[in-house]
Amino acid sequence: MERIDTVRNDLKVLLGEGLDMALKRLGEEIDPGSPKFDIYIQLKSRYSAYLSLTIIGGTAQKELDQTYNALGASLLTFINTLQEQDLKSQQEAAPPAASKRGELLYNIPHEMQEQHEHRCAVRVAYEETALLEGWKAGKEDVRRQVRVAEVMAVEMLNVSSDQPFE
Predict the structure, then answer these.
(1) Is residue 9 domain-shared with residue 33, that is, in the same domain?
(2) Is the CB of residue 60 less than 8 Å from the CB of residue 14?
(3) pLDDT tens digits along 23-70
(4) Could you tell me the pLDDT band of residue 152, with boundaries at 50, 70 and 90?
(5) Structure pTM?
(6) Which has fewest Cβ within 10 Å: 19, 64, 82, 86?
(7) Angle 37-56/61-81 helices, nearest 10 degrees?
(8) Cα 124 to the chain's mean position, in Å?
(9) Are 140 and 68 within one domain?
(10) Which ranges constitute the DSSP H helices of 18-162?
(11) Is the pLDDT of residue 7 over 90?
(12) In a domain, 160, yes or no
């Protein structure tokens, strides 16, 4: 199998894990002198704009999903058009970065009384000691292994009501 085929396949697998991982790996592989490097920069810029929209809020989830899916389709098309000459030489190419894993810990009460204040907490850390530092354990605590991204957001939803939080 040629190197370009291996790189394309690796990028497609990473695309399935998330746009951020595929873009990061693509940045490690693509030659800055290649004409396609400008397209890579545009894709990366579009992804940054998408992240800003998710953090700032005010954009409907449907619109965010459409933006994400369109960006994923554009990135897939770009990956399929890559040629050997678009890649850095094998000596220059960085080894693939390992995915950053960490733990998510959250405590969100299952029932909250209206007109009363309730404490909801979400923590993400690479190490358990950092995750649990100063944390008072509760019966509703939930822990999960997650992939930690550069930008992460938390959204509270109540699917059973049109106006969950007033």
Answers:
(1) yes
(2) no
(3) 999 999 999 999 999 999 999 999 999 988 888 877 888 999 999 999
(4) confident
(5) 0.61
(6) 64
(7) 170
(8) 14
(9) no
(10) 19-29, 37-56, 61-81, 128-132
(11) yes
(12) no
155: left (phi over 0), alpha (psi -120 to 50) or beta: beta
Backbone torsions φ then ψ of 40, nearest 5 degrees: -60, -45
As a whole number, mean pLDDT of residues 118-129 equals 83
Q: Is residue 9 domain-shared with residue 81, that is, in the same domain?
A: yes
Domain check: are 135 and 79 in the same one?
no
pLDDT band at 106 (very low <50, low <70, confident <90, very high): confident
113 belongs to a structural domain: yes
The dihedral sign for the CA sequence 51, 52, 56, 57: negative
- From 47, 37, 86, select the one nearest 70 (Cα to Cα): 47
- Tell whether the model's pLDDT for residue 108 goes beyond 70: yes
If you average pLDDT over every residue of the chain, what do you get? 85
Residues 23, 152: contact at Cβ < 8 Å? no
Contact by Cβ (8 Å): 25, 10: yes
Q: Does residue 96 form part of some domain?
A: no
46 and 114 assigned to the same domain = no
Distance between CA atoms of residues 27 and 43, nearest Å:
11
